[in-house]
TrEMBL record:
<dbReference type="InterPro" id="IPR008978">
    <property type="entry name" value="HSP20-like_chaperone"/>
</dbReference>
<dbReference type="Pfam" id="PF00011">
    <property type="entry name" value="HSP20"/>
</dbReference>
<feature type="compositionally biased region" description="Basic and acidic residues">
    <location>
        <begin position="14"/>
        <end position="24"/>
    </location>
</feature>
<feature type="region of interest" description="Disordered">
    <location>
        <begin position="1"/>
        <end position="24"/>
    </location>
</feature>
<protein>
    <submittedName>
        <fullName>Hsp20/alpha crystallin family protein</fullName>
    </submittedName>
</protein>
<dbReference type="InterPro" id="IPR031107">
    <property type="entry name" value="Small_HSP"/>
</dbReference>
<dbReference type="InterPro" id="IPR002068">
    <property type="entry name" value="A-crystallin/Hsp20_dom"/>
</dbReference>
<feature type="domain" description="SHSP">
    <location>
        <begin position="53"/>
        <end position="167"/>
    </location>
</feature>
<comment type="similarity">
    <text>Belongs to the small heat shock protein (HSP20) family.</text>
</comment>
Length: 167
């Protein structure tokens, strides 16, 4: 598997008056955590067990496509702008951070009957493939979709380092 997901699953902020909307929410969170952990071992597991979050976590959906000369990653970030997101490469990992702010307008006499939109901070960390050119990365944000393009290296440098032996 080329892009290994190194994101940490942690509780993130939803709306301020959030309570578990369903009695099975804790079980749901635990099953998501297990599926995410084993998803890196069994390819496709996370995708096959993906269901809507019940606990208020905000984790943008991610598509990764490989073409002959580059990789293209797309994250759905509806309601966000480019200023709400940061992208960096550290230790051969692509870090994508952001925060989707909640519209905290509260009107007297207003009662919420359903709140399905998610808010809060998110972090996606992906281990880059060996042929990713870390100096040739571009990003574009349009219509709520962040697109990151990573060019491939023509001849990736081997990751073997010879160690001299004393004596």
């Amino acid at each position: 598997m080329k892009f290994k997901d190194r994101s940490f699953h942690r509780k993130q902020r939803s709306h301020s008056d959030h309570q578990d909307p369903h009695p099975m929410a804790n079980l749901h969170r635990e099953l998501n955590r297990v599926v995410e952990q084993f998803g890196s071992i069994i390819p496709g597991l996370e995708r096959s067990f993906h269901w809507a979050s019940m606990d208020g976590d905000f984790r943008p959906h991610l598509d990764i496509r490989e073409e002959d000369d580059h990789y293209r990653l797309s994250l759905e970030l509806p309601g966000m702008e480019s200023k709400d997101v940061s992208i960096s490469i550290e230790n051969n990992e692509l870090h994508i951070h952001g925060e989707k702010e909640e519209n905290s307008e509260k009107k007297e006499g207003t009662t919420w009957h359903r709140r399905e939109r998610r808010f809060g901070r998110f972090e996606r960390i992906l281990e880059l493939p060996a042929d990713a050119n870390q100096d040739e990365v571009g990003a574009n944000f349009q219509a709520g979709v962040l697109t990151i393009t990573i060019q491939k290296q023509q001849d990736p440098e081997p990751s073997v380092k010879k160690i001299d032996i004393d004596g």
